[in-house]
Write a structure and sequence with these properties.
With about 160 residues, this protein is an alpha+beta fold. α3 runs antiparallel to α5. The longest helix is centred in the C-terminal third of the chain and has 25 residues, at about 135-160. It is built from six helices and five strands; from the N terminus they run ααβββαααββα.
Length: about 160
């Protein structure tokens, strides 16, 4: 995929779009899955990036199909996470970096048993490098989320 991006840039003198590289990767997955004598891809991938259209998120399947998403999860318990995101995602949340990150971690906490120890977070912003969060930052966010949740439960119990 890196070679395809470089080739595209040399040929077209423009950076590759996220959709273009997603289509390229999905085509490779489909070719390996369909062709005899090749081991098929057995995974779905999430591809995020930004281009002239803004931040983009795509999912590819081994069959070669790809989908654009506003928020998504793949893997074990992804259905639970996806349902949480569908229920709680709003455009206002997506417009606020802190709230968006908090929503993603809340969704993961729905299926992760040991708090922040089994969560990895990376954030992408336009014209910035991908930021991989430290364990301390994740723990602080999880603690904040759990405190908010406890306060909401206490308020709900007091209101009854």
């Amino acid at each position: 995929s890196r070679v395809e991006c470089q080739s595209f840039r040399l040929t077209m003198e423009d950076p590759v779009s996220v959709e273009y590289i997603t289509r390229h990767m999905a085509g490779i997955q489909q070719k390996y899955t369909q062709s005899g004598g090749m081991r098929p891809f057995g995974i779905s991938t999430l591809i995020c990036g930004y281009d002239s259209h803004g931040l983009r998120l795509y999912q590819t399947d081994p069959s070669g199909t790809f989908y654009a998403w506003k928020a998504n999860a793949i893997g074990k318990n992804s259905k639970t996470v996806r349902e949480y995101l569908e229920k709680n995602y709003t455009d206002e949340t997506a417009g606020n970096d802190d709230e968006c990150t908090k929503l993603a971690v809340k969704a993961l906490l729905e299926v992760v048993e040991s708090g922040g120890r089994n969560i990895e977070v990376a954030t992408m912003r336009v014209n910035e490098k991908l930021k991989i969060w430290s364990d301390e930052d994740i723990d602080a966010l999880v603690t904040s989320i759990e405190a908010d949740k406890a306060a909401a439960e206490a308020a709900a119990a007091a209101g009854q």
